[in-house]
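Dear Dr. H.,

I hope your travels went smoothly. While you were away I took the liberty of generating a structure for the chain from your last submission, since the lab meeting agenda had it listed for discussion. I wanted you to have the full record in hand beforehand rather than looking at slides cold. The sequence, exactly as received, is reproduced here:
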Amino acid sequence: MQAMQYEITLPADYDMGIVRERVARVGHALDDWDGLGLKAYLVRERGVDGSHINQYAPFYLWHEARGMNAFLYGGPFQGFVDDFGRPSVRQWTGLWYEESPVAGAGARVAVRHRRPVPEGIALGEVAEEVMHEAGLLVSLDGAVCAAVAVDSRHWEVVRFSLWEHEAPKTDGDVFQVLRLSAPGRDRLPRGRQW
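The corresponding predicted structure, in token form, is as follows:
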């Protein structure tokens, strides 16, 4: 499993309705994309859920690199680049994924928590700790799913979770989910990935 995200921060007075309309118009393009586990079309709006910025920041879980590469180098990503410019694309290697009993429910909120992996601590210990935290989250009422991934170049761990309505009080950036495309969600590997 691979996790991927890019962010575009928009001006404070930007009409976020433009992003919402764009997602409504073109979001279906990934509803059957080969290799995609799920794509959460995410936004943060200035003044909503504690956000100080307007931002469009889709988050992806891929079950194979081929699908991700086809999207980036020959797929709909070029339309995004044409409209907004080419963003930096973050990629993390998947460590853990799980769904809650209400996994079929729609997601309206996402939380992304990123943290550095400190020097001097065994990598396995950090991974186990973050997976445990994600496991606790996915067992809470309203959770849809959670994933943990790591960027081994910058040694950063990301914990990502989707929620039916409202996320619990937790560290991290809170996003509104405009749409969820999940053609291969049922094929995302569950549990620990090593």
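Two observations you may find useful: The chain has a mean pLDDT of 93. The CA atoms of residues 54 and 175 lie 10 Å apart.

With kind regards,
E. W.
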